[in-house]
Specification:
The protein is α/β, with parallel strands linked by helices. It folds into 2 domains: 215 residues, Rossmann fold, CATH 3.40.50.1100; 89 residues, Rossmann fold (3-Layer(aba) Sandwich), CATH 3.40.50.1100. The protein has 14 helices and 10 strands. A 6-stranded mixed sheet has the order 1-2-10-7-8-9, sandwiched between helices. β4, α6 and β5 form a beta-alpha-beta unit. α3 runs parallel beside α5. The protein is globular and about 55 Å long.
C-alpha cells in the first residue's frame, strides 16, 4: 500500500465533498417485505444515484482530490461497468480526460452509458484488464483510479451507508454486496463513525467468495478465473490491499448466496417492490429475503448498489 488505509472520519469528509453533486438517494420500505421476512427492512436505493449506482460517490470524491498535474494528464481505470460510468461522469464534470478498460463481456448497457459520458473505452478479455490498464499508465502517464483499492473510493462509497444510518436511526444489521471490497469497506467505516453497534455484513455470490475466504484467513485469496455469476458487478477475483484490513477490523460477518437465491430476490424486487435493480444489488437483500436470517424483528439495512440491469438478458430468467 502506498497510501494509508482510511479512517472512519474519511467518510464524513467525503460526504461534505460530494454534497450537492451526488444524489441523496431514497430509502425504501415495504410492509409486505417486512411481514415476509420477519424484520424491519430499509433499502438504500442507489439505483437512483447518478449513473445508476453508488460508484459515482467514490469516483467524484477521488477525482476532486487529484493534483492539477494529474488532472491534466487524465485518469484511467478498469471496470465491468458501474465504476466505469461513475469515473466517466466525475471526470467529465471536472474537465478531466478518462480512459476506461472494460472486459469484452461487460453488459452492453454499461458500455454505452460509459461512452455517453465521454470516456474512451478500451476492451480486452476480463482476465487481462489490470495488465492493459498498467500498459496505458506507462504509455500516457494517466493516474489510476482503482475501482475499489483506493482510500478515496472507499470513503466516497461509504457515504451511501452514512446517509442510510443517519436517516433510519439505529440498525441491528447492514448488508452490502461485495466485489472488490470498496462498498463493504466504506460501509463498515461509516457504521464505525456513527453507529458502531450496527453489525456490517458482506454478501457474495457463492461462486465468487474470494472476499469471504480473505476475511476468514486474513490474507488476500485470489481466484484463478473470473467468477461465473449473474451478478456481473461482483466478478472480481480478489479484494484490495486497502480493503481487507478495514473488513477484518470492522465487518462482523461475510455470507454467500446461490445464483437461484439471487434470481429469486431479483424477481421479488422487480415485480413486487417495483425496484429495477441489477443482480449485484439483489445480493445484499438475498440473505434476509431467502430466510438465511432467522425472523426476529431486527432492524436491517441493505444497500441496493445499482440499477444498471441488462433487461433483455434478465427478463427470460425472471419469467422462467
Amino acid at each position: 500500500m502506498t497510501t494509508p488505509t482510511p479512517e472512519p472520519t474519511a467518510v464524513l469528509e467525503a460526504a461534505q465533498r460530494i454534497q450537492g453533486i451526488a444524489n441523496h438517494t431514497p430509502v425504501h420500505t415495504s410492509r409486505t417485505l417486512n411481514q415476509q421476512t420477519g424484520h424491519q427492512i430499509y433499502l438504500k436505493c442507489e439505483t437512483f444515484q447518478r449513473v445508476g449506482a453508488f460508484k459515482f460517490r467514490g469516483a467524484y470524491n477521488a477525482v476532486t482530490q487529484l493534483t492539477d498535474a494529474q488532472k491534466a494528464a487524465g485518469v484511467v481505470t478498469h471496470s465491468s461497468g458501474n465504476h466505469a460510468q461513475g469515473l466517466a461522469l466525475a471526470a467529465k464534470l471536472l474537465g478531466v480526460k478518462a480512459t476506461i478498460v472494460m472486459p469484452d463481456n461487460a453488459p452492453a448497457i454499461k458500455k454505452a452509458a460509459t461512452a455517453g459520458y465521454g470516456a474512451t473505452i478500451v476492451t480486452c478479455p476480463a482476465i487481462e484488464r489490470e495488465a492493459v490498464c498498467a500498459q496505458l499508465i506507462e504509455e500516457h502517464g494517466y493516474t489510476l483510479i482503482h475501482p475499489y483499492d483506493n482510500p478515496n473510493i472507499i470513503a466516497g462509497a461509504g457515504t451511501a451507508a452514512l446517509e442510510l444510518l443517519q436517516e433510519t436511526g439505529p440498525l441491528d444489521m447492514l448488508f452490502t454486496p461485495v466485489g472488490g471490497g470498496g462498498l463493504i469497506s466504506g460501509t463498515a467505516l461509516a457504521a464505525a463513525a456513527v453507529q458502531p453497534n450496527c453489525r456490517v455484513i458482506g454478501v457474495e455470490p457463492a461462486t465468487a467468495n474470494d472476499a469471504q475466504q480473505s476475511w476468514q484467513s486474513g490474507e488476500i485469496v485470489r481466484l484463478t478465473a473470473v467468477p461465473n455469476t449473474l451478478a456481473d458487478g461482483l466478478r472480481t477475483r480478489f479484494v484490495g490491499e486497502h480493503n481487507l484490513p478495514i473488513m477484518r477490523q470492522y465487518v462482523s460477518d461475510m455470507m454467500t448466496v446461490t445464483e437461484a437465491e439471487i434470481i429469486a430476490t431479483l424477481q421479488y424486487l422487480w415485480t413486487r417492490l417495483k425496484l429495477v435493480v441489477e443482480p449485484s444489488a439483489a445480493v445484499a437483500l438475498a440473505p434476509a429475503f431467502t430466510g438465511k436470517i432467522a425472523p426476529s424483528g431486527q432492524r436491517i439495512g441493505a444497500i441496493l448498489s445499482g440499477g444498471n440491469a441488462d433487461i433483455a438478458q434478465l427478463a427470460p430468467l425472471l419469467t422462467a
